[in-house]
Amino acid sequence: MSEVPFLKYHGTGNDFAVVEADEAVSDRAAFAIALCADLDADGVLFLDLDEGDPPVVEMALFQPDGSTAAMCGNGARVAARWGSERTGADEIRLETGAGPRHTRIHEDWSVTVEMGSLSFDPDDVPVDADEPMIETELAGYPITAVDTGVPHAVAFVEDVEDVDVATDAPPIRHADVFPEGANATFASQSERGFDQRTFERGIEGETQSCGTGAVAVAAVATRLGTIVPGESTVVSPPGGDLTVTVREDWTATLRGPTAFEFSDTAPRDPGTQVGETR
Question: What is the CATH number of the domain that holds 56?
């Protein structure tokens, strides 16, 4: 049976299988559904490399339910590392569904991603409202809606550990006010910055880390005046620490670690189990 080689990485516990885009996978959605289920992964990144100056990596992310996401902060860091490992470059330009993203790869394999422009505009999020959704009551939480490449509904609470994410997030994620759905992100202030938990659209559950969600937390904190523009802050999902900077022009950077785990192959036929080799 024909096999597809893949590499397994994670960024602060957000797990991804990386497949070269020129692999003949006829049904990427079905392939991603099967592989994510077998690996308990958060997505499959199909990556294509163009060795220019700087090198360009085209990134397509398929999620565990077979849907695609325009942008993923942790996935972007993994994609940048993959490109750097193949070219030796410490700068990689990513082409994503949310537009081009510049990345810098550091000696410790942490990666800084330029996350583009953030927006609270209802048309950009999108949210079905005439004005920006700022601390608006929804499903029992004060929700602020922001686009960080994908839509996020952010709620600041006293302690994220007290939130029953599995129960409380779905009514927010599927709320009628979000025509394309939204990631539900909860955050609370900590001594170091913010603690974060996110229920991700397409994964349909809480993940160990969400990079766009970390940026959303910092963006909303900036909008509410909790932090000042240009101030770097640490946002801590369960999987580890991420550093976010939101500038005065509402562009942002995200820095965090990446880790290579193992390589393996997966059957092109999604009906066959993956056998892991390390």
Answer: 3.10.310.10
